[in-house]
């Protein structure tokens, strides 16, 4: 499985961005899709997760502002980010988890989001 993230950039506070994660390779047995972020000097944190069954989970700091979704026809996962804040500045990584006898995580290369105040 290969993941290609895109859509990052520079935006003013209050603005919006949509991140995309194109998934290629074997998508069979993907259990969950996720977006994570890592700000300078901080640990990577989970931002949003979408299960294969459609259940979503968000970190409290983005609830009501971010939406994770997927388009199976395009094998793409999205993160719609609204009302962006300077503290959302980070490198964002997409992730999928597959189960094929054991759990395996796959990561994209990261896309940088900078929110100016």
Q: How would you characterize the largest beta sheet?
A: 7 strands, mixed
Q: What's the SSE pattern?
A: EEEEEEEEEEE
| Average of pLDDT | 96
Tell me the quaternary state: single chain
Q: Which ranges are low-confidence, i.e. pLDDT below 50, for 5 or more consecutive residues? A: none
Helical stretch tally:
0
CA-based gyration radius: 14 Å
Helix content: under 10%
How many strands appear in the DSSP assignment? 11
Distance from N terminus to C terminus (CA atoms, Å) equals 37 Å
By secondary-structure content and strand pairing, the structural class works out as mainly beta
| β-sheet strand percentage | over 45%
So what's the overall shape? globular
Could you walk me through the main structural features you see in this protein, from its secondary elements to its overall organization?
There is one protein chain. The chain is 0% helix and 59% strand. The chain has 117 residues and is mainly β. The strands form two sheets. Strands 2, 4, 5, 6, 9, 10 and 11 form a seven-stranded mixed β-sheet that branches. A four-stranded antiparallel β-sheet has the order 1-3-8-7, with no helix packed on it. The protein is globular, with a radius of gyration of 14 Å. The model has no long low-confidence stretch (mean pLDDT 96).
């Amino acid at each position: 499985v290969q993941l290609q993230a895109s859509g990052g950039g520079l935006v003013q506070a209050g603005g919006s961005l949509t991140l995309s994660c194109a998934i290629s390779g074997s998508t069979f047995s993907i259990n969950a899709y996720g977006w994570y972020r890592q700000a300078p000097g901080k640990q990577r944190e989970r931002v949003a997760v979408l299960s294969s069954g459609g259940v979503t989970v968000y970190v409290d700091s983005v609830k009501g502002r971010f939406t994770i979704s997927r388009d199976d026809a395009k094998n793409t996962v999205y993160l719609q980010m609204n009302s962006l804040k300077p503290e959302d500045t980070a490198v964002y990584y997409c992730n999928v988890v597959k189960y094929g006898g054991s759990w395996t995580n796959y990561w994209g290369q990261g896309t940088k989001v900078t929110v100016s105040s």
